[in-house]
């Protein structure tokens, strides 16, 4: 069992950006669960593993030029 996370064998939402997600996933796989959820885990809203989006000069950003009328 993942000592930090508390995965539940039920359908529901998972937080893939949780830093403990891998441990919970490993536990679900070792138990042969077809599905699992974070449930009411205290880390459900933890976004610590979310990658930071960085923009570089070659990135394409769609934009629109709007004309102002006076």
Model description:
It is a single chain. This protein is largely without helices or strands. It has one domain (1-49). It has one helix spanning 21-30.
Please give a handful of descriptors for the protein shown.
14% helix; little secondary structure; 70 residues; elongated
Characterize the main sheet.
none
How many structural units, i.e. domains? 1
Tell me roughly what share of residues is in helical segments: 10-25%
The unreliable regions are: none
Radius of gyration using CA atoms only? 20 Å
**Number of DSSP helical runs:** 1
Structural class: little secondary structure
Output mean pLDDT. 80
Shape estimate: elongated
Number of strands: 0
Distance from N terminus to C terminus (CA atoms, Å) equals: 66 Å
Estimate the strand proportion: under 5%
Run of helices and strands: H
Topology, pairings included?
Blueprint lengths: L20 H10 L40
Summarize the structure.
This protein is mostly loops. It has one helix at 21-30. The radius of gyration is 20 Å and the shape is elongated.
């Amino acid at each position: 069992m993942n000592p930090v996370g508390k995965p539940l064998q039920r359908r529901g939402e998972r937080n893939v950006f949780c830093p403990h997600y891998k441990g919970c996933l490993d536990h679900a796989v070792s138990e042969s669960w077809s599905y699992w959820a974070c449930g009411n885990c205290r880390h459900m809203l933890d976004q610590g593993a979310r990658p930071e989006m960085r923009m570089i000069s070659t990135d394409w950003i769609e934009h629109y030029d709007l004309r102002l009328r006076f």
